Amino acid sequence: MRPLHDSDCSSPATDDQGEVSPVFVRDGGRRATAARIMTVFPRWFVMWGVYSREFWAFPCFGAPPGTVLHALEADHLAGMIHLEQRATADGSR
């Protein structure tokens, strides 16, 4: 199998017989960043989208249906705090 380089992420890796092989894309530690965000915000499921190259955050609490946040940078997910606080405040009424 030929090695995968950052420059050829658009083409699939193939083995010696020309068969397409699973590809593990380098993400620059973004999956680990998503995991760290989940330790700080345990009421959210956070993942790095390899195809979209964005962070995606899904609430695991009583947020309005269809609530999903996404951002190019992890720092831009600050809306998680506001949504969680608002849902908590609405639930206490």
Q: Could you tell me the radius of gyration in angstroms?
A: 18 Å
Please give the share of residues in helix: 25-40%
Instruction: Report mean pLDDT, rounded to a whole number.
Output: 80
- Helical stretch count? 2
Computed structural class = alpha+beta
Strand count, sense and closure of the main sheet? Answer: 3 strands, antiparallel
Poorly predicted runs of 5 or more residues: 1-11
Provide the spatial order of strands within the biggest beta sheet.
Answer: 1-2-3
How big a fraction of the residues is strand? Answer: 15-25%
How many β-strand runs?
3
Shape estimate? elongated
* SSE string, helices as H and strands as E: HEEEH
CA-CA gap between termini: 60 Å
Compact description:
Helix content is about 25%, strand content about 15%.
Structure description:
The chain has 93 residues and is α+β, with helices and mostly antiparallel strands. Mean pLDDT is 80; it is low at 1-11. It has a domain at 27-91. It has 2 helices and 3 strands, in the order H-E-E-E-H. A 3-stranded antiparallel β-sheet has the order 1-2-3, covered by helices on one side.
